[in-house]
Every structure is written in C-alpha cells, then in structure tokens.
Amino acid sequence: PKIVTLPGDGIGPEVTAAAVAVLREVAPDVTIEEHLIGGIAYDTHGDPFPQVTRDALKDADAVLLGTVGGAQDSAWNLLPRHLRPESGLLALRKALGCYANLRPVRVQPGLEYLSPLKAELARGVDILIVRELLGGVYFDGDRKIDGDTAYNTMRYTTPEVERVARVAFWAAEQRKGRVTSVDKANVLEVSELWRRDVTALRDREYRGIHLNHEYVDSVAMLIVSDPSRYDVIVTENLFGDILSDLAAVIPGSLGLMPSASLGDGAGLFEPIHGSAPDIAGKGVANPAAAIMSAGMLLRHGLKRPEGANQIDRAVALALREHPTRDLGGKADTQTFTRAVLSALE
Amino acid sequence: PKIVTLPGDGIGPEVTAAAVAVLREVAPDVTIEEHLIGGIAYDTHGDPFPQVTRDALKDADAVLLGTVGGAQDSAWNLLPRHLRPESGLLALRKALGCYANLRPVRVQPGLEYLSPLKAELARGVDILIVRELLGGVYFDGDRKIDGDTAYNTMRYTTPEVERVARVAFWAAEQRKGRVTSVDKANVLEVSELWRRDVTALRDREYRGIHLNHEYVDSVAMLIVSDPSRYDVIVTENLFGDILSDLAAVIPGSLGLMPSASLGDGAGLFEPIHGSAPDIAGKGVANPAAAIMSAGMLLRHGLKRPEGANQIDRAVALALREHPTRDLGGKADTQTFTRAVLSALE
Ligand SMILES: CC(C)[C@H](C(=O)O)[C@@H](O)C(=O)O
Ligand SMILES: CC(C)[C@H](C(=O)O)[C@@H](O)C(=O)O
C-alpha cells in the first residue's frame, strides 16, 4: 500500500517524522511518499494545495497530514483567502471526498490529572465525535462580502446528512450503541432537515441504535459538566468544529487528540492540534496525536486493527513513562518517539 | 417607572415571583404589570407573543422574563415553528430591539467547589459575554426547508456589527479594558466583515481598549481550560448562544446566571436557565438567577446601581448560607428568597 505524508507547517514536519518512524516499524511493507501542503506549499509553488500534491493522491491508500498554518501575524494570513494555508487543507478534504471526520476523545487511565475538569468527571470518558466535513457553511458557494454586508449559507441535503449519519451509526454499533445528534432545530430550518433525516435513517436501517437529539448550546454545556453521558456524537460541520475542539480539552492536552477523515476514497489522518509556530523546530513538540493518527490510519485506512492496537498500547505506555512538556513532563519529541518504538511488541 | 413581568412556562412563574418580591423591597415605587409569553400564552391566546403582551410593552421601562418552553415531548414542540414557545421569545427580543445580550460569568468567592473545573481554574473568573441578539442565522429571512434540501443564512451588516461592538467596548471601559472578538474568519466571509468592522470601530473611537480576535473553536477550548484570560467577549448570535451556555458551566450551576438584553428601548432581563419542567410547580427551583436578573434590571434598565449592588450582595450571602438543591444544599425557593430579603440592607 502507498501512503502520502503531508507534513505541512510549524511542528507538522517534526510530529509527522515521529509518526512515520512508528509506521515503518509496524507496517514495514508500506510505501511512503512525502509532499507539500499549506503555507510551505504556497511558498514553494504559489498554491497551498499544488497540482503535484493533488496528483500524488490519485493512487494513495491513505494520507497522513501534519499541520498547516502560521502564527496570527504570519504573512500567509494577509493573502487572499484561497491562497492561505487553511484553504489548502479545505481543498484537500474536498479532493479526497472525506465527509466524515472522526475525533475520539478518551481519557487514558492514570492521566486524569491532566484534565481541567475534576478527576471524577474526567475519569473513563470515551466519546467519539463524528463531524460532517464537506458541507454546511464551509463549502457552500452562496457566500459574499461586499461593502457593508456579508453572508454565508448553511446548507445541507438529505444525501449529505445520511452518509455521515451512517458512519455514526456504524461506529456506535461497535461501541455502546448510543448516538446523540446535535443541531439547533428550535431555530434553524437546516437543523430541522438534519434531525428529520437522521431519525428516518435510524428508523429504516439502524433500529438497534439508541438515538437522541440535543441542541448545540446544551451539548456545549453538558459535554464538559457531564461528559460520561455521551457515546457517539454526530453533527454538522461548524457545530462539529466547535464541539470537537471543546471536547479536546477533556483529556487535558490537544497533543493527545488524533483524527480520521473518511469518505469515498483514501482517508485523511491528522492530529487535531495546530501548527504551534512558537515551538516549531525546537524538537519539543508532543508527537502522540500524530502517532495515534497513524494508528487510526492503520485501523481505518489499511484495515489493520492489530497494528493500530499495537500503536495505541505503546503510546499509552510512553505517555505514562515519558510525558512530554505539554503534559508537565520532560521528554522531548525524540525521547518520546523512542519510548513508543521500544514499547511496540 | 413601569416594569412588565413575563413569567412564562415551567419554573418561570416561581422564580419570577421571587424576583418580584425582592424588586418590590428594593424599588417600592415601581409599577409592575404581569403578562403572558411562551407556551402559556399560546394556550390562552393561540399566540406565543400575543397582541395584549405586545401592547403592554409600549410604555414599559424594562421587562423581566421568567422562562419559556416545555419538555422535549411537550405538545408545543409539535406546533408549526412560529407558534412554538421559543418563537415567542425571539419575537419579543425583536419587538424590543434588544440587540446586545450581556451574560456575566462570575465565580463567587467560596463557591468554586460548585464548578466542574478544578478550583484553581474556576477561582476569580469574571467574564462578560456580549452576544449579538438580533442578527445572523436567527432572523435572516433567507431560509427554507424544501424536500431534501434546507438552508439558513448567516448575514451581518456593518451597522449591526458596530452597535453591538459599541456595547462591548463601553462595558470593557468599566472593567479591565480588554475585548476579545470571536469569529471564524479563516472560513467565513461574514466573519471577515465582523472582524474588519470591530477593528475599525476600535481604531476610530475606542483606542484605549485592548482588542484581540480569536476563532470560535479555539475560544470554546480556552474558555474552559484557561478562563482567566478573558475580560469581555463579543460575538455574533449563534456563536454567542453556544459560548455563553458553555461559559455558564464555569460557576457550576445555570441557576446562577442572569442576563440583560439591551437595545433601542426597554431592556429585557432574564435568567439564562430553561423552564425545567421536571421540577416546575414544586417550589424547589433556585431563583438566584432571576433575582440577579432583577438586579441587572435596576442597574441597566432603571439606572439604579445602588439597588443593583444591594441585590448582588444579598444574593451572595444567601447563596453561602442557604444553598438551594441544585447547589447541593437544602433550601427551597421560599427559604432562599426569604434569606435574600432579610440580607438586604
Ligand atoms: C483550520 C480550519 C479551517 C479547520 C476547520 O475549521 O475545519 C480547523 O479548525 C479544524 O477543525 O480542522
Ligand atoms: C430558546 C432559544 C431560541 C434561545 C436562543 O438560542 O437564543 C436560548 O437558547 C437562549 O440562549 O436564550
């Protein structure tokens, strides 16, 4: 199988290198091809998602991404929107047809102390957030800024809702069988459609799943005050962006959050943390999320659950024995990566 | 001065009665007129915001609202959208022209233990969220559900952005002088307008204010992991709905969160908690947020800061000595209200 790696900007190259080292060990038969994305791709090719990268994806089985983007005051942020690093990422998601973004939120036993929540609330949390990734206000073409008025359009169609809801129901079948669909149906027509279609699909094809509906403002509140009530959460693109970042605080460090984006073709696997320009190049970034994303790549992209489990176990061990600086420990990127490598059985 | 009270549904009448008792004590000269809103108004007049209520607002100096809405399985939720209790509330906000919703988030000294956050994070939190209340996806007429597609439109104009930003800058001048404007400018044109206009207004008229811009997903994360970094937060309607409910968990009980909605005419003052149909009519609801909303009514609606301070001090005392059930205490609505009344100096 062929994997394309897109290290990107900031700490992206460092954490991707760590993930690649682990991947080579667990899956020595894969071919790895590295390409540019984001700000570095703009600097090199004048395009944050250049044609050469696009071409390389054609026969890829999975894509491993680092991070894209620069500091708040980066010159990249002064570019026209379509040339900024983030646009490269959005274009990549679109090109791959990755409509379902899976973000597991898990508090590792023994690491509850990292959470901003009281330990008794954080303990045992295990939520899977499924975010719709190709619809809503993110991609709808009906958008404009013109003089003193601007608008964007939150649009969904039934097929878009159904395909992502299917992923949530499928995931729930392998977990506790409960799905919470999140919307703002008391105010938005687009949420009325979302709620209707998710319910109809459950009634038609997933009768074994327990489905409930909650409002996004209420979930924002409950996910931090009573996280254990959730199993699988499914929601539209913008709500998913907000809720999954919010949920990421529960384990206590963004450095522990991997993600998988699945769809029609090759999946996209990436840590959810940003490019952290302040520590880029210093060799101190926590590569755990990137390594765990490589684990998700093995599980969902290459269908090798044994390899994925191997990585998860090794990361859990390394986190306990060699915590990185963001976790209050001392390990740098290399020390942590070595710890993972030597914990692989 | 004339105050209109709209007790509404669920626990609304109980907590409003408590607030009115305190108001009569602190401001014996005000005239109080009670009217219907929400589900109860629909049941009585076939309209969640009936003409008789609308008429009563014409010469009101301020409006004190309880709560609207029923349980998830309430028959009200099967009505067409414009007849549901929530639509009564939205129509009321519109009729009053209340474009700026102020939600203070304050952790009272000694009550840190109520927070789901670790005590050291909750201690001393004092944030003011200013939510735009009459624009964005909530009211824009360009919305539809039709067959297998639906959409809503997030629209803002410069005057809408400026009037709410002014409220945030004005509030910051009386606090620590820092405003964080929240948007999703890396993806949305409507956020680009928001950011541009907030910045321009600061540069023109509020040069003493320290303004910064953050993305909504990042704020959702930081407001719970590092709440002390914020002073005043200003944002559009939907982001404000989500973030203010989220921030409400910091003090540990929704029962402690008042709000003020200000605009062209009479202000609207209401607790942010819901109608809690499960405990309605039992006399156990925590009326603190409604009483504190009456305090905000004195401060912002009638310009009587002394009365407002009197109420705030009395509530703080009552909370420590007679905590209600939602706070792990035993006091019922009446006991708590009496404690507030006797703590008024
Ligand atoms: C960088 C940005 C466009 C992106 C998003 O909003 O999708 C990010 O916040 C994320 O969640 O991956
Ligand atoms: C009930 C609902 C329409 C309302 C809103 O979204 O504005 C509520 O959530 C609030 O925040 O006051």
From TrEMBL, chains A, B:
<keyword id="KW-0560">Oxidoreductase</keyword>
<dbReference type="InterPro" id="IPR019818">
    <property type="entry name" value="IsoCit/isopropylmalate_DH_CS"/>
</dbReference>
<feature type="binding site">
    <location>
        <begin position="274"/>
        <end position="286"/>
    </location>
    <ligand>
        <name>NAD(+)</name>
    </ligand>
</feature>
<dbReference type="GO" id="GO:0051287">
    <property type="term" value="F:NAD binding"/>
</dbReference>
<feature type="domain" description="Isopropylmalate dehydrogenase-like">
    <location>
        <begin position="2"/>
        <end position="340"/>
    </location>
</feature>
<comment type="similarity">
    <text>Belongs to the isocitrate and isopropylmalate dehydrogenases family. LeuB type 1 subfamily.</text>
</comment>
<dbReference type="GO" id="GO:0005829">
    <property type="term" value="C:cytosol"/>
</dbReference>
<feature type="binding site">
    <location>
        <position position="241"/>
    </location>
    <ligand>
        <name>Mg(2+)</name>
    </ligand>
</feature>
<keyword id="KW-0028">Amino-acid biosynthesis</keyword>
<feature type="binding site">
    <location>
        <position position="131"/>
    </location>
    <ligand>
        <name>substrate</name>
    </ligand>
</feature>
<keyword id="KW-0460">Magnesium</keyword>
<keyword id="KW-0464">Manganese</keyword>
<dbReference type="InterPro" id="IPR024084">
    <property type="entry name" value="IsoPropMal-DH-like_dom"/>
</dbReference>
<protein>
    <recommendedName>
        <fullName>3-isopropylmalate dehydrogenase</fullName>
        <ecNumber>1.1.1.85</ecNumber>
    </recommendedName>
</protein>
<dbReference type="InterPro" id="IPR004429">
    <property type="entry name" value="Isopropylmalate_DH"/>
</dbReference>
<dbReference type="GO" id="GO:0000287">
    <property type="term" value="F:magnesium ion binding"/>
</dbReference>
<feature type="site" description="Important for catalysis">
    <location>
        <position position="184"/>
    </location>
</feature>
<keyword id="KW-0520">NAD</keyword>
<comment type="subunit">
    <text>Homodimer.</text>
</comment>
<keyword id="KW-0479">Metal-binding</keyword>
<feature type="binding site">
    <location>
        <position position="93"/>
    </location>
    <ligand>
        <name>substrate</name>
    </ligand>
</feature>
<feature type="binding site">
    <location>
        <position position="217"/>
    </location>
    <ligand>
        <name>substrate</name>
    </ligand>
</feature>
<comment type="function">
    <text>Catalyzes the oxidation of 3-carboxy-2-hydroxy-4-methylpentanoate (3-isopropylmalate) to 3-carboxy-4-methyl-2-oxopentanoate. The product decarboxylates to 4-methyl-2 oxopentanoate.</text>
</comment>
<keyword id="KW-0963">Cytoplasm</keyword>
<feature type="binding site">
    <location>
        <position position="245"/>
    </location>
    <ligand>
        <name>Mg(2+)</name>
    </ligand>
</feature>
<dbReference type="Pfam" id="PF00180">
    <property type="entry name" value="Iso_dh"/>
</dbReference>
<keyword id="KW-0100">Branched-chain amino acid biosynthesis</keyword>
<dbReference type="GO" id="GO:0003862">
    <property type="term" value="F:3-isopropylmalate dehydrogenase activity"/>
</dbReference>
<keyword id="KW-0432">Leucine biosynthesis</keyword>
<feature type="binding site">
    <location>
        <position position="217"/>
    </location>
    <ligand>
        <name>Mg(2+)</name>
    </ligand>
</feature>
<comment type="pathway">
    <text>Amino-acid biosynthesis; L-leucine biosynthesis; L-leucine from 3-methyl-2-oxobutanoate: step 3/4.</text>
</comment>
<feature type="binding site">
    <location>
        <position position="103"/>
    </location>
    <ligand>
        <name>substrate</name>
    </ligand>
</feature>
<dbReference type="GO" id="GO:0009098">
    <property type="term" value="P:L-leucine biosynthetic process"/>
</dbReference>
<feature type="site" description="Important for catalysis">
    <location>
        <position position="138"/>
    </location>
</feature>
